[in-house]
Write a structure and sequence with these properties.
364 residues; alpha/beta; 6-stranded mixed sheet; 10 helices; 28% helix; globular
């Protein structure tokens, strides 16, 4: 089935194209061309001020008062996906924070159930902890935090085969054997909730850790005599790192500094949670952020608001802010050959925006 989308501008991931159309055949982009080049009798499926690649969120915990860790069920994932679509996100990586292995297993089961029932948009599971540093636990539950034994790692990886896509861990509390074991299962490692020194961070990245989790939050600080994990991230040539652009987790001026250094290696996550009063993580909405026992525990931001903040508060241009929410996170997990751009052969995965950059629709 053919679909034809038109817009005053199409941002294809490289540049904005005025008065362009996108022709989609069976869910795949066939052509991107000027509107005047369309056949006269063509039926327009939808029109928008701006069409851009739909967003990719690699760290979000739940929505609509159904935190995945508290409600490890396919309905939680359906609610999460619907919420994400409203903010322009088409592909999502649900996250479970430091928890019991049994609960992590239930989250894995929930994703398998969701997929088996035809659920869309969920890329897999992001497991954040429990192999992190207690000194940088943030709102994570200390009783579950530990340095893992190889047999524990293998148990989790075997159970989560083809579901677990990212594991956030502190490199200084995990042995080289553990790092290599995770990598051997094709799971991406992200350094986070870590008190790593500069040298420990660099060593971890040189050993193959590809990512880092929420820059500046729950990690050793950058100081003039002790560069810490952020210094290692800045210094390394290829590691990519997420950041939360809500103005609470990181000062907007600091995001600007990080962007100037990291360029295309910096991408957006929402780190969004939802109100819940059951389970290990009980989040309370505090203005436009969430807290747990008085500690900042997650954001209340959508991806489109993250993009707007990058433009309005940080000074990043529109094209680059859109890439930070689409192309760069897609690149971080190796799916940028099919999503994150609007070119021939890419998936139908678009966000439709009005002239205020508010989301009209997200398709795919």
């Amino acid at each position: 089935m053919q679909k034809v989308y038109t817009a005053e501008e199409v941002f294809n991931g490289d540049k904005r194209l005025p008065d362009h159309a996108i022709i989609v055949e069976e869910g795949i982009v066939e052509k991107v061309l000027p509107i005047i080049s369309l056949p006269r009798n063509v039926t327009i499926t939808a029109h928008a001020h701006l069409i851009a690649p739909a967003f990719v969120d690699l760290q979000i915990y739940g929505a609509k008062k159904r935190l995945l860790a508290a409600f490890p069920e396919k309905q939680s994932l359906q609610d999460l996906y619907e919420y994400c679509l409203s903010g322009g996100t088409r592909f999502v990586m649900p996250c479970v924070a430091t928890n019991s292995y049994d609960n992590i297993f239930k989250c894995i089961d929930a994703i398998r159930d969701y997929w088996a029932d035809g659920g869309q948009g969920v890329l897999g599971l992001h497991v954040e902890g429990p192999w992190i540093n207690k000194a940088k636990k943030g709102a994570h539950i200390e009783e579950f935090i530990h340095s893992p034994r190889p047999e524990q790692v293998k148990q989790l990886l075997d159970y989560g085969k083809n579901v677990i896509r990212i594991i956030t861990l502190a490199p200084e509390v995990c042995s080289t054997e553990v790092i290599k074991l995770v990598q051997s299962h094709g799971v991406l490692i992200s350094a986070g909730h870590s008190n790593a020194t500069y040298s420990e961070g660099l060593q971890g990245f040189d050993d193959g850790i590809d990512l880092a989790t929420h820059l500046f939050n729950a990690m050793s600080p950058i100081q003039h005599r002790s560069p810490g994990l952020p210094g290692a991230i800045f210094q390394h040539d290829s590691v990519m790192v997420s950041i939360i652009a809500d103005g609470y987790h990181v000062n907007f001026e600091m995001i600007s500094i990080a962007k100037k250094i990291l360029q295309q290696r910096l991408f957006l996550i929402t780190d969004a949670v939802t109100e819940t009063n059951i389970g290990y993580y009980q989040h309370t909405l505090d203005g436009d952020k969430y807290t747990s026992n008085g500690i900042l525990s997650g954001s209340a931001i959508s991806m489109i608001q993250s993009v707007k903040n990058c433009i309005d508060k940080v000074g990043i241009n529109l094209n680059e802010a859109l890439r930070m929410a689409s192309l760069y996170p897609a690149k971080a997990i190796g799916i940028n050959n099919r999503v994150g751009m609007i070119h021939k052969g890419y998936e139908e995965s678009f966000v439709f925006l009005d002239n205020n950059l508010d989301v009209i629709n997200t398709t795919g």
